[in-house]
């Protein structure tokens, strides 16, 4: 699995072609200007899309990523493009969710990260996937993720 890493920001402020796959996507990072502080960064992607690897039908999820940065924070345009690269990627819910979390951990080396994939029903059953690197840091304000259990999410 070849991943591209670049030291300078190449996407922010530039016209950028969407990556064809998660492996081709470039996740960019910038130095954390508050490395001594313990704070939470949250990204919510309520319109995440991937493809069922068996049927080829689209799958939809509300993805919530929480992390406590160390030296690096993710550049948000590159994250948006990375998440969008799953649009034509065939993988099960569990694989998509955990792959995203692990890629962010590899790139950022945060103090802590958790990801939740609140997937819309496939075959009448919603599948929610949760992964984290360990216990959250002590004294961290960790708000609820704000995604209700499935009842016709909206």
TrEMBL record:
One of its GO terms (molecular function) is preQ1 synthase activity. It comes from the Bacteria. Gene3D superfamilies: 3.30.1130.10. InterPro entries: GTP-CH-I_C/QueF, NADPH_dep_7-cyano-7-deazaG_red, QueF, QueF_type1. It catalyses: 7-aminomethyl-7-carbaguanine + 2 NADP(+) = 7-cyano-7-carbaguanine + 2 NADPH + 3 H(+). Substrate binds at residues 74-76, 93-94. Residues 1-26 are annotated as: Disordered. Its EC number is 1.7.1.13. NCBIfam families: QueF-II. Belongs to the GTP cyclohydrolase I family. QueF type 1 subfamily. Catalyzes the NADPH-dependent reduction of 7-cyano-7-deazaguanine (preQ0) to 7-aminomethyl-7-deazaguanine (preQ1). This is NADPH-dependent 7-cyano-7-deazaguanine reductase. It comes from Hypericibacter terrae.
